[in-house]
Amino acid sequence: MKAVVLAAGEGTRMRPLTSAIPKVMLPIANKPMLEHIVDAATEAGIEGFVFITGYHEETIREHFGSGEKWGVTIDHVHQNEQLGTANAIGCAKGHVEGSFIVLNGDVLLSSSHISKMIEREENAVITVKRVENPSDFGVIETEGNRVSKIIEKPENPPTDLANAGIYLFRESIFELIEKTPLSPRGEYEITDTLQMLIDSSDNVGYEVLEEEWIDIGRPWDLLDANKVLLEGWKPEIAGLVEPNATLIGDVSVGEGTLIRNGAYIIGPVVIGKDCDIGPNCFIRPSTTIGNEVHIGNAVEVKNSIIMDGTKIGHLTYIGDSIIGRKCNFGAGTKVANLRHDGKNIKVSIKGKRTDSGRRKLGVIMGDDVHTGINSSINVGTVMESGSFTGPGEVVR
């Protein structure tokens, strides 16, 4: 069986992290989130993938190729315009036969749930998740073990079963996709296609998702996903750890990486290849450090994602932050991650102030950002790719 993975979007709410790569290629635990999905699906028995791509699709092609590394086949299919989920799934016509699974490239889930979906025999199966706030989602009505109706963000939800956007379809779905009308917001919605199928058949089932499900919609969701994926991580030391460095718990060190004397690292932490760490630095739990990263003397990093090629100068503190590729931190840069009043931190997303729901959140930094020495970055600050600060500057 094949899996169709929807991966065409930019992820505008993730800007500036997606200025040069699509959302599905953002790293979590030092692998693109799309690779985590491929790993889970492959473990469940999926033998082939169809990636529906668009925005910066070349980065996906370069990383995954035709799938040999994972022992699967991967077809890359370009979506000309993003005209809704039904349109995206329709792009897979001719690339799948019989039954197939549809996955979102920005939703992490377990292999066990995919295995359950594969075993189902209905015309279609919808994955649903029990939620406390169903009015924020599309929800289903049920009759026994069948779906009778799909309702988008109802004021008075009939159930707490939210549509999780993961489906099992048969090839016949493409005929209904071609008949699906434009929705009021000008897109071809797969939920409309499913309602057409429900109206013409009583053979649409649902599968309740009991396992971990992480929908990555905003930058700070990366931190939550990173923490979950690092739990139970199997550490591997492939680089050089000098004798007076201290590693506690599950710490992975990539090939060609040097951990210098005086470094104190508490896992779970993953450090990539060809990094230079220390001396005398402090790396705290739930931190992921990419490849070719330098962390200098007296630097402290906590619960953060540091992407490839970034250099963090001495006497710097970074906490609860997402740092893009090839950034450079001047000595003494400090990132604040907690409000004085302890309230949730708000972040500017697409021009609107958004409550992150987090008491601790530092900076969301795009690629190629440079900070001057002794810069101070306030909580919840978003720094665009290519921006910079002068010495001693305070950024809000």
UniProtKB/TrEMBL annotation:
Pfam family, one: NTP_transferase
EC numbers, comma separated: 2.3.1.157, 2.7.7.23
NCBIfam families: Arch_glmU
InterPro entries named in the record: Bifunctiontional_GlmU_arc-type (IPR023915), GlmU-like (IPR050065), GMPPB_C (IPR056729), NTP_transferase_dom (IPR005835), Nucleotide-diphossugar_trans (IPR029044), Trimer_LpxA-like_sf (IPR011004)
Domain Nucleotidyl transferase span(s) in chain numbering: 2-230
Protein name (Swiss-Prot/TrEMBL): Bifunctional protein GlmU
Pathway, per record: Nucleotide-sugar biosynthesis; UDP-N-acetyl-alpha-D-glucosamine biosynthesis; UDP-N-acetyl-alpha-D-glucosamine from N-acetyl-alpha-D-glucosamine 1-phosphate: step 1/1; Nucleotide-sugar biosynthesis; UDP-N-acetyl-alpha-D-glucosamine biosynthesis; N-acetyl-alpha-D-glucosamine 1-phosphate from alpha-D-glucosamine 6-phosphate (route II): step 2/2
Organism: Methanococcoides cohabitans
Designated gene of the protein: glmU
Keyword Transferase in annotation: yes
MF-aspect GO terms: glucosamine-1-phosphate N-acetyltransferase activity; UDP-N-acetylglucosamine diphosphorylase activity
Top EC class of this enzyme: transferase
Domain named Mannose-1-phosphate guanyltransferase C-terminal: residues: 265-383
Family: In the C-terminal section; belongs to the transferase hexapeptide repeat family.
Swiss-Prot/TrEMBL catalytic activity: N-acetyl-alpha-D-glucosamine 1-phosphate + UTP + H(+) = UDP-N-acetyl-alpha-D-glucosamine + diphosphate; alpha-D-glucosamine 1-phosphate + acetyl-CoA = N-acetyl-alpha-D-glucosamine 1-phosphate + CoA + H(+)
Lineage start: Archaea, Methanobacteriati, Methanobacteriota, Stenosarchaea group, Methanomicrobia
Taxonomy, superkingdom: Archaea
Leader sequence residues: none
Key words of the record: Acyltransferase, Multifunctional enzyme, Nucleotidyltransferase, Transferase
